[in-house]
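Lab intake sheet, docking and co-folding queue.

SAMPLE TYPE: protein with bound small molecule
LIGAND NAME: magnesium ion
LIGAND FORMAT: SMILES
REQUESTED OUTPUT: full 3D complex as structure tokens
PRIORITY: normal
SUBMITTED BY: R.K., bench team

The fields below were copied directly from the construct record.
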Amino acid sequence: MFLDSLRKKFFQPASFLGCDIGTTSIKIAELKRSGDHTTLTNYALLESFGHFERSNNVLQANDLKLSEQETANMLRLLIKQGKFSTTRAVASVPTFASFITVLEIPSMNDDETAKAMSYQIRQHIPLPLSEIAVDWIRVGQQEDNNGFVKQFILLVAIPNEVIERYRAIFKRAGLSLHALEVEPLAYARSVIGSDQTPALIIDIGARSTNITAVDQGFVKLNAQIDYAGDSLTEAIARGLGVGLRRAEDLKKQKGLAGGHGEYELSTLELPFIDVILHEVEKVRAECERVHAAKINRCLLIGGGSNLIGIESYVESKLGIPTSTGNGLLFAPAPDRLAVVEKELQTRFALAVGLAIKGFI
Ligand SMILES: Nc1ncnc2c1ncn2[C@@H]1O[C@H](COP(=O)(O)OP(=O)(O)OP(=O)(O)O)[C@@H](O)[C@H]1O
Ligand SMILES: [Mg+2]
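RESULT FIELD (auto-filled):
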């Protein structure tokens, strides 16, 4: 124990990269720790617009056909241009490439829980144990009206094939992969601060939106829906008869606020936001039913959270305080990055959470 803390104090690497390989972009955040202070020292973003023109040109497709060579090349390019000071990286595995579930089992001691879990893993994961890396953690406990105590266990599994793919990509890119983590655990780490009350985190990306319920710092539920920022761009393009690039510009300039010609942009965008919020309501209801945790705030992250007017719209629909999340709560950015701070807080929340994991 003493040796472990000594090792951490003196031998722990001072910097880590958090690498978020999204469907349409790669984001890297470099965090440096000195004493008890962690700061964001560098970042890089590479966005691809190609996915709009050719639907198979995404960095990461739901069918897992991540193009190893192409992704490694892009990572290598970003690392070179970003002039990062370390090659130690922590990366995320998207929700669709992993299994995340919260199980309810009777309360028992640690040994019995471990035995029960080996059975539960076989029940819940559709792959043989030899083909997955699996981890679980107790995330809560609750007594029902009859005095029966149950515990909640967060079960996470990543197929070995996915891990190997990431290892190969990072090796090709000249990086050393220190750890892999599922997305919700990483962004919950960066945006949930000292306020441990039940919260929803909504990560609105390009191709998918991830919805996570967190209580006392623990992920309690997670769901994903294939509607996100690009759904709005495509709706604007169809509705106004303009190209996707023009639609993307209009979306970013006007958000939910401005009109355009005879259409209000929001008329085109809101049906898709409502579909996302319908899924959010399901997660919220499930969390309140199963965990008896009344959700009382909502944090928006991901590129889509920068849509003008989205916070007040979501707040009015969900009826709970809603704001953009701040991924820099535990790793503030230096003054020179002030102009991009909002983007770092929201779009880099996942990358920052990954880099923090390196120090844990
Ligand atoms: N200022 C803005 N206003 C509205 N939307 C924005 C803004 N900036 C970025 N976006 C949208 O955010 C989306 C990209 O977000 P993000 O970088 O989080 O996606 P990603 O991580 O690559 O995708 P995914 O999480 O789906 O894999 C795009 O749809 C983009 O149009
Ligand atoms: Mg993303």
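REVIEWER NOTE: Residues 22, 205, 302 surround magnesium ion (ligand 2) (CB under 6 Å).
SIGN-OFF: pending second check by T.M.
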